[in-house]
Specification:
Layout: H1 2-18, H2 24-38
Length: 46
């Protein structure tokens, strides 16, 4: 279940980057932190 949640969060973070609301660096930090907290093991490239 953690991988599915992480994928959805990745899509959201990409969209926020496209809208100029986040930088790529911020999105990567957020994604890394959430991956650790949820125990997800899916490798995703922003």
């Amino acid at each position: 279940m953690a991988n599915i949640d992480l994928l959805g969060i990745t899509v959201l973070l990409r969209w926020l980057c496209e809208q100029g609301k986040l930088t790529d660096k911020e999105a990567k930090r957020i994604l890394s932190r959430i991956a650790v907290q949820t125990g997800a093991d899916l490798i995703i490239s922003l």
